[in-house]
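Translate structure to sequence.
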């Protein structure tokens, strides 16, 4: 019976066959221990010399790393294994022999591993990170579908930019200028006016020349937009969503989190509601912490966000940023014209902003005025203004960066490990 490693717990004390690769091996006299992987998980195969034909034991001792195999054996409970099971091997069939596999069990430098990303993905650590990433995606669809949201796919090629064109990839769209999308938000607002509550999940691009551990050139965003949602409604949805993601990973990926050495207690505490700090108070707090360089009207950098986050045991909202440092579409605070109804959600443990969101301007004249202030062409944004012309309503939305969220939940230091093939400032290979 051919099965996968992930479902092997259903076949205790039964003989099964798995298609797999040899991740590693060691032998001790008359026993060989094979570390096997099949894409769904990892398991140890135990080959005892006296219990298999001579050619099978010889193959077990000589087979090379990353050779592909069919392994037949008896499933046994193994309480010493993190996985909980092992295979008592009866037969081995070599499918394809691997020669001189470049990623050996010794330590390798980051650039070497990035050059071999197509192979590095096979390692136990990278496998665990990708499984958690997949769980976050699965839980995202579940969360929004259960709450009546409709999935909408905004275009990747756009003729305008929600936050200006200085950090966009420019291309030619026949005889017009076009850009790779940095956000699907404007289109999602149009979708919300048609469908009520919507969300998107897709790639976004930032031509930002940054080399920090938090930045990628190409990354994935989850962007919900909701008609008739106030600023407060928006914050409540965000904290419910992030709590849901963390608890789903804890429930369904405990083996992977343990493989990564993640401190589970820090994740178990992630439950809504989340604390909030007004931008004004954040500036005062930073001054008290010795950050004399920051003044009112400045945006926060990584050290500032980390200092604020370290004062809380769960994600924290920084709210009501100055209007001058935020995009044109954000609704002003009705009590203060100099700040807008927006919030950044900062993850704990130094992982920085994982969500940016706001209530959107719904007044036609105000939005038109803001477009003028930002020197944005009205003809390009006419369709966006139309949303305020034909039945405008209060509405809000946010964007969650998938890779930063994966990095935080898995405890991974650099976002380059949280996407299968990262695009970095100096890396387009493989």
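Result:
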């Amino acid at each position: 019976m051919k099965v996968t490693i992930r479902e092997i717990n259903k076949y205790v004390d039964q003989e099964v066959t798995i298609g797999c690769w040899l991740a590693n091996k060691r032998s001790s006299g008359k026993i060989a221990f094979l570390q096997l992987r099949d894409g769904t998980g990892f398991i140890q195969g135990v080959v005892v010399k006296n219990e298999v034909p001579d050619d099978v034991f010889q193959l077990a001792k000589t087979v090379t790393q990353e050779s592909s195999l069919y392994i037949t054996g008896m499933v046994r409970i193994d309480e010493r294994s993190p996985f909980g099971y092992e295979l008592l091997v009866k037969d081995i069939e070599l499918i394809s022999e691997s020669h001189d596999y470049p990623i050996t069990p010794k330590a390798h430098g980051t650039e070497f591993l990035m050059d071999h990303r197509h192979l590095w993905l096979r390692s136990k650590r990278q496998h665990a990170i990708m499984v958690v990433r997949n769980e976050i995606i699965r839980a995202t669809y579940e969360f929004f579908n259960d709450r009546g949201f409709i999935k909408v796919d905004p275009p990747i090629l756009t003729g305008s930019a929600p936050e200006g064109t200085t950090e966009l990839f420019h291309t030619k769209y026949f005889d017009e200028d076009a850009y790779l999308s940095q956000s699907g938000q404007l289109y999602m607002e149009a979708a919300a006016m048609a469908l009520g509550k919507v969300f998107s999940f897709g790639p976004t691009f930032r031509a930002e020349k940054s080399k920090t551990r938090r930045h990628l050139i190409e990354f994935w965003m989850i962007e919900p937009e909701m008609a008739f949602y106030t600023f407060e409604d928006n914050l409540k949805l965000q904290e419910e969503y992030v709590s849901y993601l963390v608890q789903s990973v804890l429930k369904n990926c405990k083996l992977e989190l343990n493989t990564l050495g993640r401190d589970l207690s820090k994740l178990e505490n992630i439950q809504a509601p989340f604390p909030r700090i007004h931008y004004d108070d954040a500036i005062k707090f930073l001054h008290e912490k010795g950050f004399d360089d920051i003044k009112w009207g400045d945006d926060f950098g990584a050290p500032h966000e980390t200092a604020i986050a370290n004062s809380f045991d769960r994600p924290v909202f920084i709210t009501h940023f100055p209007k001058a440092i935020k995009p044109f579409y954000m609704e002003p605070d009705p009590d203060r014209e100099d700040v807008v109804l927006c919030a950044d959600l900062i993850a704990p443990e130094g992982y920085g902003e994982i969500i940016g969101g706001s209530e959107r301007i719904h007044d036609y004249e105000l939005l038109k005025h803001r477009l003028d202030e930002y020197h944005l062409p009205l003809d390009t944004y006419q369709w966006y203004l139309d949303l305020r012309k034909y039945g405008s309503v209060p509405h809000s939305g946010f964007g969650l960066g998938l890779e930063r969220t994966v990095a935080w939940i898995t405890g991974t230091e650099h976002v380059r490990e949280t996407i299968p093939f990262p695009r970095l400032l100096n890396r387009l290979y493989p």
